[in-house]
Amino acid sequence: MYRHSVLFRFSPETTDEQIDQLTEGLSALPGQIPEILDYRIGPNVGERVDNWHYAIVADFADVAAWRTYTDHPAHQAAIHGVVNPIVADRAAVQYEVVTS
């Protein structure tokens, strides 16, 4: 399994409404992109002020499926419509899941 994990820090002026729109937009992706095997998203619960603000963890069968997701028009629309307007910093990693 191939996992894609992303963290966002929002711009200081980001509103709760924009975060809700982000969640709504991202939540729609699994129904539009069949290559997504599992998709977990959500805002930080606020236990620590130095944490990142939002997380995405998505699973794919392989790197080819992840690349399809990355280039998919629905994913690109979400990036340009609800992600880029509010994200100040982004961290991401893709990796093969190792199970013990």
If you had to describe this structure to a student in words, what would you say it looks like?
With 100 residues, the protein is an alpha+beta fold. The protein has one domain (2-59, 85-96): Alpha-Beta Plaits. The chain is 36% helix and 32% strand. It contains four helices and four strands; from the N terminus they run βααββααβ. Strands 2-3-1-4 form a four-stranded antiparallel beta sheet. Helix 1 packs antiparallel against helix 4 (73-83). The longest helix is centred in the N-terminal third of the chain and has 12 residues, at 16-27. The chain is globular. The mean pLDDT is 96.
Q: In total, how many beta strands?
A: 4
Tell me roughly what share of residues is in helical segments: 25-40%
Q: What low-confidence regions span 5 or more consecutive residues with pLDDT below 50? A: none
> What is the mean pLDDT?
96
CATH topology: Alpha-Beta Plaits
> Mind telling me the C-alpha Rg?
14 Å
CATH level-two architecture: 2-Layer Sandwich
Strand percentage, roughly? Answer: 25-35%
Number of domains: 1
Report the sheet with the most strands, covering strand number, pairing sense and barrel closure: 4 strands, antiparallel
Strand order, main sheet: write it out.
Answer: 2-3-1-4
